[in-house]
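Justification of computing resources. Each target in the renewal requires a structure prediction run like the one illustrated here; the chain below, 104 residues long, is used simply to show the kind of job we budget for.
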Amino acid sequence: MYKMNTFGITNSILNPQLFNTVNDANSNKDISRSFADYINEALQNTNNLILQADRLSNEFAAGRIDDIHKVVLAIEKADIALQFTLQVRNKILDAYNEIMRMQI
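Resulting structure tokens:
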């Protein structure tokens, strides 16, 4: 369903194959999902990465783990996911503002 990209972010927005899906007449599955579902899933994935990075950094600070590379990698994944999420939010807001400026 979703593929993991090089940063470990499973995000429907990063998978272009999902947008090229064609409804098969023989298929009984309902594969149609709303844009809000994709956004909610992306936000949930970003939140999970941030929580995982927070948990690992707390465990490292407490001395329960000693692999600093794992901690830094988790923090960078969370940072990249958050930056990506903010950019998507900004683009959505720009599109909304553009639509609101249109005259009907």
